[in-house]
Amino acid sequence: MGMAVALLLIVVASVLFHVFSPWWSTPLASNWKQMDDTLLMTLAVTGAFFVAINLFVAYIVLRHRHRHGKEQRAAYEPENRRLEWWLIGLSTLGIVGLLAPGLFVYANYVTPPSQAMLLEVTGQQWQWHFRFPGKDGRLGTTDARFVSADNPLGLNPDDPAGLDDVVVDGNETRLPLNVPVKVLLRSKDVLHDFYLPNIRARMNMVPGMVTSFWFTPTQAGRFEVLCAQLCGVGHHNMRGYVRVTEPADFETWLAGQRTFAQLRQASAAPQAPGAMLGKALAQSKGCVACHSVDGSASVGPTWRGLFNKSVPLADGSTRQADAAYLAESIREPQASVVKGYPPIMPKSVLSDAEVAALVGYIQSLGGAPIPTDAGVANATTGRQP
Amino acid sequence: MTGDAHAPHGFWTRYVWSQDHKVIAIQYAITAIAIGLVGLVLSNLMRMQLGFPGKFAFIDAQHYYQFMTMHGMIMVVYLLTALFLGGFGNYLIPLMIGARDMVFPYLNMLSFWCYLLSVLVLVASFFVQGGPTGAGWTLYPPQAILPGTPGHDWGIILMLVSLLIFIVAATMGGLNYVTTVLQARTEGMTLFRMPLTVWGIVMATILALIAFPALLVSGIMMLLDKVAGTSFFMPAIVSMGAPLDYKGGSPLLFQHLFWFFGHPEVYIVALPAFGIVSDLISVHARKCIFGYRTMVWAILAIGGLSVVVWAHHMFVSGMNPYFGFFFATTTLIIAVPTAIKVYNWVLTLWRGDIHLTVPMLFALGFISTFLIGGLTGLFLGNVSVDIPLSNTYFVVAHFHMVMGVSPILVIFGGIYHWYPKVTGRMLNDALGKAHFWITFIGTYAIFFPMHYLGILGMPRRYYAFENYAFIPQSAHTLNMWISVIAFIVAAAQLMFLFNLAWSVRHGKPAGSNPWRAASLEWQTPQTPPAHGNWGAATPVVYRWAYAYSVPGAAEDFIPQQAPPQPGVEDEPHMPRRTEVLS
Fold this sequence. Notes:
The complex is a heterodimer.
Chain A: H1 2-20, H2 33-64, H3 81-109, E1 117-124, E2 127-132, H4 160-163, E3 166-168, E4 172-176, E5 181-187, E6 192-195, E7 202-205, E8 211-215, E9 221-227, E10 240-245, H5 247-256, H6 260-268, H7 273-284, E11 310-312, E12 318-320, H8 323-331, H9 352-365, H10 376-381
Parallel strand pairs in A: 1-5, 4-10
Antiparallel strand pairs in A: 1-2, 2-3, 5-8, 6-7, 6-9, 9-10, 11-12
Helix pairs in contact in A: 1-2, 2-3, 7-9, 8-9
Chain B: H1 11-16, H2 21-51, H3 61-97, H4 105-124, H5 154-183, H6 196-227, E1 238-239, E2 242-243, H7 251-284, H8 292-305, H9 323-333, H10 335-349, H11 358-381, H12 383-389, H13 393-423, H14 429-456, H15 473-506
Antiparallel strand pairs in B: 1-2
Helix pairs in contact in B: 2-3, 2-4, 2-15, 3-5, 3-6, 3-7, 3-13, 4-5, 5-6, 6-7, 6-8, 7-10, 7-11, 7-13, 8-10, 10-11, 11-13, 11-14, 13-14, 14-15
């Protein structure tokens, strides 16, 4: 009796939950309405089945439950071939009905339009990098052995196709509205997954190979990028943005970005030595994977405005983040961990000069007002994204 | 089985170095439940962080991922697989087919001790430098063995070693179960008279023998990548800004090997549950299972299909996208035999004499949770519906309902059902009912809303969801409530443990066949069954295990070994084996 009521309540509660749930897909911002439609269709069919079977079991329990003291005996029906074949046939039909539209949509998914523009996304723990093919429409080749502080994407410097590639600075890229884009995905270290909830389409990024998918942005706006394949302790914090704008705005923005050739020239030119060495070290040693330079939250404390700030430590005490503390924390990361951060920073082998350069770089980020959300590189060159 | 060389002579050989399948089953079960409790505590630690982010300072990202990884691995492999095969399989196979023991008792004993060793190695990984691995239970390389992942040094090594030992244990047990079923059935026990429990367990065992070698080789290959510098799964990588010495390996190769194991693994857990729940429903509804032969063929079909669906776990992995068509199709085909099983359970209940005992409550609960878990599989198996949902909380909700909650409900139902045979005493009914209601309603309340968080797009395996604009505050509030319910459900399991311990001495005496069941395990001369199970002679079987409410019979069940009664057609759908009647 209780069981029949419970099943009935489960059905009623499930339906009510569905109707009143504030949690549903984010607004669609791509061409993949088909995916939403197949999901809705699957939900309708399976939901009806769920309700029907639960209610039927509730009815059976109510009707055929054993009543105390009443002599009753179950029916004896080992099988019913006719009924069984009917059920097999109907289930098969239902499955075909669900599968066929799904495969039809998938056929579109694996066939990018031939005129689609290219966007390359490279993942690393716990950052996104974006690259466009430049004027020649071709992306230059890459290899892990070319990766360095001034060539974080590992572009082949001898490949002419790569010289005009546009390397986007920071974790935000732009895309033109209503233009199909084929996204090529790479990873420098571990598995990642380039995931924009509003776009629906996605794919894993796998080190050692290039994967891809395509979509057409159909809504202007700034959309959050998440990583959806476990990639280590910073996985939940691997943030990025895609801003979809009118094609004209996009072209203007793209023209303002630097090409690989320009980047190489810029890094060859002499700049403020201490801070630049520190910055290069911060990138090559992977510091910036966990310590943001723009004030945003990450796995470790941000370096923006850190210098000489007084910081609470995990043991309850407080320290001033002066040069001595910073140097000590670089050499002995576990010695005095800032409260609220996991003690996961690995030790790096660094010379005294390198530690001093890093501290100098952190100092150069301190106190200054936060110029833009894309970080210090823009501040030093004076360009706005 | 005439010799009695492995008969116990003292405490040590009776309870510790035992070669008796019943003792080994209990050893397996106690070990599995003990490590399962660790898995349960880990799940609550995760829920503490998800429901109350940042409130518990000791749960940082590193610990969270370690808890998550160990929870998954413990529950899937060390609890569910071990308990179904090593626990239920060991206890029930010989008793249900009328054998005196497993055919290789010594191997059986070794299997348990290897299993215990694998559990100890697993537990040891909590105490090594860096802690246990936090790579997710899928252990995907490259991250499993690289800095940035907790336990990338000793944790992952111990995890892999523990798995390798577990596979040795499972292989020794598995060969034993299959050989026993094929060779040691008593007179008259044809394959098509075996209870579905045996069918489910033996098919799961065959799957284990097929699937575990894939995990074995991938585990060895990853160990070599980790300690010997090979590059099976490792391409050229720049980790934390520094290039590594690996070159040319394929992370996708690991995923194929892992899921070639991992998907059959789902059915290694599900098929025994299918079998056991069929028997629970039939006994407690006093009705023969509906469509027995179809049920057997469905088990075989599901088992066969389960080894050609693995890449539906990899629809967005970056594998050749055209594989998606094939694996979506095979995956949805497997829904047909699975649906048939659900129909036949429901049709067994139809016009039954349903006794709402505690085992029956768990069986009915299973039908409902398996229904929702199976149906959401139709979303994730259908490739284009999977793409937006993959790696979201929808997946978490799906697999917890279908291969977490559902098999666990069957395990509970099975324990309430067979405990009287194992101990001679009944479990307390009131505690059992309270345990059922809290667990059944509670797990629904935990996992049902997660489907919607998944549709919203919340990714799984996230330590925290702070400052994501697309996640509304209400989702965080919902997460808090899910956590509160998870704590209550976990606490309710203490009731079950207390019941298990208390009833051994204080439970109501059960008698030999309290549920008036027809299958052989209830017909032993002693309860609990003595060593050798059957006294002087093994039973002779005259019919199937489902002769309930047979028209013309005096009782509403006819035990399998009761001689045929004139005029009572108790196996009308099967050719009668007249040779055993003479």
